[in-house]
Amino acid sequence: MEKQPVITTYLQMLKADELIPGFSENPQLTIVQACEPLPAFYRFLYGTVGRDYQWIDRLSWTDRQLHEYLASPNIAIWVAYYCGTPAGYIELARETSELETEIVYFGLIPQFHGRGIGKHLLSFGVQRAWEAQTERVWLHTCTLDGKYALNNYLQRGFSIYKEVVEPLTYGKVSIN
Q1: Does domain 6-166 have CATH number 3.40.630.30?
Q2: What is the pLDDT of residues 141-150, one digit of tens each?
Q3: What is d(CA 97, CA 157) in angstroms, rounded to the nearest whole number?
């Protein structure tokens, strides 16, 4: 059986008014910033959200590496909770020298798919990025991600600016 290549799609939003929000009215859904994200909690989010999508980049990071990264004032972690249970997260990295914000990681724990939480969390995260006086919000996704990921980005107003096709080589290609 031939392995399919991995297609990485890069998307961006250049103006705040390009955002097409998809907010939920569900009062059981809340989003809270993890102002002091602990490495163990971050590992839980990263590992649980990314397990099915081959997120591997940060699995080998030590507690110290994670703590230093998460303590940066340019990193923001927002966690979605549904009925008090963590449902997913969005990780924003602000590059102040270029006045841009990258959505580094974004996703839901599989049990929370299909409830509108993803479009709500993405809309929330993009709004927070624009509130930080950025000039560009960008991200990349790939064919290893959830089947609705690219569509969610496009429906929220992101536009594609580049695609890269690479062979699938486990341990070398990661989604973020």
Answers
A1: yes
A2: 999 998 899 9
A3: 25
